[in-house]
Structure prediction request, 210 residues.
Amino acid sequence: MMETTGKHLIPSRAAKRAHYDSEALYPILDEALFCTISYAVDGRPFSIPTTFVRYEDKIYIHGSVGSHFIREIEKGIPVCITVLLADALVVAKSAFSHSVNYRSVVIFANAEKITDSETKYLSFKWLTEKVVPGSWDYLRPVTDKEMQKTTSLAFSLTEASAKIRTGMPNDEEEDKMLPIWSGLIPLETKRLPVIADESSVEIALPKHLE
Prediction:
């Protein structure tokens, strides 16, 4: 749980795992490909996963100009954005003490609609290069029509907090001598070899995808 005080988010549990500096926040945001944006409209909660990119002290998302989700949050209503990277399952000697090693970020912000054409264009490039590094100059250039069909939104990281758990299980003292295995099950998200579609089977694989 989080409580807000000024510009910072104060966790109400495991506060020692919280971090507010860019050295903690930026690596998590740069590694994660997806975030979840939560908001409320007319008393109804919504929570939408989407890709995002960080550039300097903001994160950016894109969406169709006709998207209900985009049209609502571009009004500047409050949103909560969450990111999670799971690094390991923490297996303790009791189910109660099981845990997860993770890196997470929570952001409270309001959307800023990008109307400057150059920044909007660059935000497309930043996101494309994050999702498929090295691909922007290889791809067919974005057209003005595509730009017009897409909304770009930015969110400040002013109210952002990272929370990180590392290490082995925290078993109760009386459990540590039990003949029960405990430790970590590491988790990994990685890119696997590419799979060509029918139109690309005869096309040489570009270097950025090797």
Summary: The helical segments are 22-31, 68-73, 117-131, 144-148. The chain has one domain: 2-209.
